């Protein structure tokens, strides 16, 4: 009888060890795949809830048919972005609104659903663009504040920079050998390029003109 109890305890310990090892591997893989988005989601929801959320995002993403833009479409979008940057000089609030629309249109044309609210759009884009999604959130937040004229011109300029980071990644064609699987977003995203972190983007030179009016 004693040996039976010992055997059962050993089996239970082995099962527990395997379960813990699998959980650690899953956590490590999600953290590696989502990067700063993993940390942000864990901070907001706690580890277990956050990991369930991130896993669900990947499952949802698997149903999307993500495709590249045709060269002609990329050129047209690039021209519209250049026009938005010119618009910023005279009407920065309108230009930021245009940038938001352009990002959504590119997302739609690439195959991402955009009918949902902003948080769902951000969650969807985070699977393939886990670094730049924070830029998207920052840009959108400023855009919302701008509608109440609660954003300075410098903040609006920064919003354009943030939108541009994601816009460029969505627009760019895949490079040869790029990994596009949503199962491994930590490698290379669907545009074939590694995204720049929000801090890097904020420090990058911008084509958006500086304004000196102080507030929008």
Please characterize this protein's 3D structure:
This protein has 216 residues and is mainly alpha-helical. The chain folds into two domains: 2-62; 71-203, no CATH class. The chain is 69% helix and 0% strand. The chain has nine helices and no strands. It has helices spanning 2-34, 36-45, 47-62, 71-90, 92-110, 118-128, 133-147, 153-171, 198-203. Helix 6 (118-128) runs antiparallel to helix 7 (133-147) and helix 7 crosses helix 8 (153-171). It starts with a helix and ends in a 13-residue tail after the last helix.
Give a brief outline of the structure:
The chain has 216 residues and is an all-alpha fold. The chain has two domains: 2-62; 71-203, no CATH class. It is built from nine helices and no strands.
